[in-house]
Every structure is written in structure tokens, then in C-alpha cells.
Amino acid sequence: MVYGFLTLGASPFFPFRFLITSLSSSGVCCDLEVDVNGEETFLLDKKIICSFSGRLSKLFDKSTNAKRNKVIFRDFPGGVENFELIARFCYNNGKIDINPSNVSLLYFAAQFLEMNNSVSGNRNLIEKTMKSIEEISYWTWSDLLATLKHCQDLQSSGIVERCLDSLVGRLAIPSEASPCASTSSLDSPGFWLSCDTRSTKSLKDGFSQATWWFEDLSILSPDMIEMLIKYMVSRKYNHVIIGRFLFHYQKSKFYTASPEEKHQVLETVIDMLYTLDTNSISCKSLFRIYRVVLNLNISKNSRNKLECMIGSQLDQATLDNLLIPSPYGASYLYDVNLVLRFLKAFLCGGDQQVSPMRIKKVGSLMDMYIAEVAPDPCLKSSKFLALVVALPDSARDSSNELYHAIDIYLEVHAGLSDEEKMKICCALNYEKLSTEAGIHLSQNAKFPSKSAVQVLISQQLKLKNLLQGTNNTKLYTNSPCNFIETKGKAKKDEACEPTLYSERLDISVDNEKLREHLQGMQCRVMELEKVCKKMQSEMAKIMKSKAAAHSSSARSLPRLCS
After folding, report:
1. Dihedral through CA 75, CA 76, CA 78, CA 83, nearest 10?
2. Which among 154, 173, 407, 522 would be 20 to 30 A from 93, CA to CA?
């Protein structure tokens, strides 16, 4: 006897379609009505379906003996198309063609309906699909992609893990790394095995053998990509290539994604990048991602991860990278708080030790950044000071650039109090100023007078130390012991004497120049001291005159009253 079933509603792919009249005339039983996800309704033979499904069998054991029963599935895996495959399996007495294109859908549906040994015996659909999945190593690359695509909207299961494991394993084999998946059709089984290396190179046209799969896997959902990357990391796949793929995935998805999808893609990409080795990720690409993030409201956790990754590579950044506009509603021009967070992440270092060379590179970068933001009239002194003192003193060999930035800031912010100016100026290491910069500061009216005195004192101490060093060298070269030594080695060192003599002459000339400069600086210090004393005496006179005026006005009050 041939079994049939009826669907109510249009179903262009359903071959077993009979009219109710023909069913009733032929005596076919239709006592079960099944609503699949609200999309379509099927009329089936309850006895046939329940003989394969443990879930429906248990359901009808508890129900009354009604002439017709109705079942509503709200979340049937694979929808109407997949339920049709299940119905075919049941009506064909447990026979169906299982292949890579439908195995995943049948597997999920069989689990959903509990189609196991306890119900159907040797016609167990779960067992049949598992046997097909065990042959996954023989599947083509296209079959793997098709199966993963089917599984994207379904719950994770063993089949997804097996597919991903097989897929990552093939990516790790250089000789078979390019199965021409982008140029092959999903309907061409065996193509992966038949494609040789030479044809692959000609078809890929300049694509690196390590990145041929980027476009193929970009069709996967963010959740599936997260699982894929975790598998690749566990298999110790090259982190540089993984990072490049994630950046490619973000770009390709953004062309057609909705705002919500962009939000999910970005968070997945950032979270997966965070699991990779920091040195394997391009700093430039991270800044590009951050500029995209500015227009999307991603989670705080993902944003912190991105800032931490950028901060750990701050020595590779450029000035243009750091010039990020301030958030909406902020008065200042650039996002100074963001740069301060980058600096904090850099100095923490994570698992890596921050080398002196890297710190100095960041110090040079920060001097340029501070000079760039200094002309901003809306930048508060507290934020400017935070930038100036953010790095340790060892980050700068010279304070000239920092002095130049502070000079610009004080010129634009002329209304600062002396206390605010002194806080900023105290961040300068006067000993690291060049002679020219020190002279310029001592004559700079924008800086407090205390700063001018301090820079002159530090320059004086520096010159004294240099003089002491040269004098010690001179004493050593003229000592009797040294004379005896040199006399004993006269013949050996005869060729070196002209060089040593010329070096001594150079030292003596330098000493004369240093002495002259020191005398000039001492004169300027004395002049400044005289100016300070004169100002103090004038202030004292003003205070005395004010006190005298106050006392005279106090005496005149009783006379007026009388």
C-alpha cells in the first residue's frame, strides 16, 4: 500500500500532494494535523509518525482517543523543508538518501523528535545520520561549508564540532590548503580532492596560499566564527593569519549588515582578537576598528578589550592614530581621556615587560601629541598636566619638546593662575633642557619667575659637574704615576700621542667656553635676584602706605562724629 500525506498551504518543493477527496476515497488515514512553526500545516497518519518518533508517541499515550489530533511545533529545526524530509523518511519505512547537504538538518530533527532505537529499532534516524557524519573526512570543502551554513541557526551539537575540526585540519595543510572553494559550486562533490596546486595558483590570482579561505568562511555567522577561531587557536594555527581573517571578516560583513548585525560582528571580532598574541595584530588595523566603534554602541567590556590591545602596542602608533575627536558633547577638541587610558594600558604591559626603548618611543610620540593638543583653548589644565606627567622621567632623554608644548599651552591659556602654572612647570626636568632651551625659558615671561630661577640653578649645577669631570680627567693625565706609565709605554703608544694631545686641547677649549657660559649665567642669576629684591622692597612700601592710609582714616572718624 502506498502512503500519502497532505499539506495545507503552498509548498513548491513537496512532491507527495494529494487532494482530500482522493485520500478519503482510497482510505488513507489522516488523523494527525501538524502545524510547523506557523508556516505550513501537514495532515499525516498518526500511527506511522508515532512509530518513528518517541516524542510524539509519548505525547499521544497521554491524550484522549480523539478522531483527529493536532500538534503545533513552534521551533522545529530546519522549518517546513526539514519536516518534509522527516515525513518522507517515515512514509518510506525508514529509507532516505542521507548526504552532506541534508545530514545536519536530519540529525537535528531526529534529536528533536527522539527518533532513536527505543522507538524505531534498526530504522533509527539518529544512528543513520551519525554514521554519515563519521565519514566527514571524505566530505568535500563545499560540503563542509554547506553543512556549517545549515547549522548556523541551530543549537550547537557534535556535528558542528566535527565539521569545524575537519575544516581547521584542512586549513593547516599547505599542500591542500586551496581547494578552490570560492570558484567551486556547492553542487560539485569531489571537487576539493580533484583540484591540484597549479590550477589553484592560477585561479586564486595573487591570493596568498595562507589566506585563500577568507572569502569562503566570511559567509558564517558571528557565533559560528567565534567557535571557528577557538578551534583554530586550540590547534595552534598562525595567529597573524587569524588576525588578518578577522579584519577581513569585519570588512566583508559590514557591506550588507544591519546596525544590529554590525554591532554583533564588531563585538565578536574584538573578543576573538583579544584571545590572540598581541604581537600578531596590526596596530593600524586596531585603530581602524576603533574608528568604526566610535559610531556604534558596543558593550563596555569589548571597548575596554580594544583599548587594552591598542595601549599594549602604543609604541607602534602614529600621531594621526591618536588624534581621535572627543566624544559628543565634550568641549575639548581631541579625546585626551582615551589617550590617557592607552598610556595606562601600555605602562601596565600585560604579560610583557615594557622595555626602555619602547617607553622612549612612546615618550617621543606623547611629546608630539601634547604639542598638538596644547593650542586647544578648551583643554583644562588638569588634563594637560595629566598628559605631561603620565610617563616616567626615563621616557625622555631631552625635555626640549615638552618645554615647547608647555610654552604653547601657557601662551594660549594666559589666564591661568601662578599656582596652576607652577604645577605644570614642575613636571619639567630642567636638567634635561638644552642650554638654548634653558636660556629661552629664563627669559620667557609666560613662565613663573621661580621656574626661571630653577632652570638657571640646574644649568649651573650641570656645568659644574661637567667642569669637575674635565678637571679630574686633566689631573689624571698629568699625575706622576700616569707619566711613569706612559714613559714605559712610550714606544708602544708613540702613534697615539698626537691624538691624545689633540683631545686635551679640545677639552681645554671646551672648558674655556663652559667657564664663559657659566659666568654669563651667574650674572643673569644675580640680575634676577636683584629684580626679586627690588620687587619685594616695592611691595613692602605699598603695604606700608596702605597701612598709613588706614590709620589716618581711623583717626578722622571721631572728629566727624563730634
Report:
1. -150
2. 154
What Cα–Cα distance (Å) separates residue 199 from each residue in 170, 181, 207, 380?
Answer: 18, 12, 13, 63
Q: In what order do the strands lie in the sheet with 32-36?
A: 6-8, 40-44, 32-36, 69-73
Label residues 405-438 b or e (16+ Cβ within 10 Å = b).
Answer: bbbbbbeebeebeeebbebbbbbbebebbeeebb
Residues 6+ apart with CB under 8 A from 235: 168, 169, 172
DSSP assignment of 234-247 equals: HTT--HHHHHHHHH
- pLDDT reported for residue 515: 54
DSSP state string for 420-433: HHHHHHTTS-GGGS
Global pTM reads 0.69
d(CA 149, CA 25): 43
Name the grid cell of 508.
Answer: 681645554
Between helix 141-151 and helix 103-113 the angle, nearest 10°, is 40
Angle at alpha carbon of residue 372, lines to 367 and 376, rounded to 5°: 130
Residue 550 pLDDT: 60
Partners of residue 432 on adjacent β-strands: none
For residue 448 the three cell numbers come to 613663573
Q: With cut-offs at 50, 70 and 90, classify the pLDDT of residue 255.
A: confident
Q: Where does 172-276 have alpha helices with state H?
A: 191-194, 197-204, 214-217, 222-234, 239-254, 259-273
Could you tell me the end-to-end alpha-carbon distance of the chain, in angstroms, rounded to an integer?
A: 137
363 CA to centre of own chain: 22
Contact 36, 83 (CB under 8 A): yes
Q: Per residue in 6-61, pLDDT tens?
A: 333 333 333 333 333 333 334 456 778 888 988 888 888 888 888 888 888 888 77
Q: What pLDDT digit, counting tens, does each position of 152-211 carry? A: 876 656 788 888 989 998 887 643 444 443 333 333 333 333 344 444 444 444 446 678
Amino acid letter for position 318: T
Q: pLDDT, tens digit, for every residue of 103-120?
A: 888 888 888 888 876 555
3-state helix, strand, coil in the chain (%, to 5): 65, 5, 30
Q: Count CB atoms within 10 A of the CB of residue 126.
A: 18
pLDDT at 558: 47
Determine whether 18 is exposed, middle or buried from the number of CB atoms within 10 Å of its CB (0-12, 13-18, 19+).
Answer: middle
Give the whole-angstrom CA distance, residue 10 versus residue 386: 69
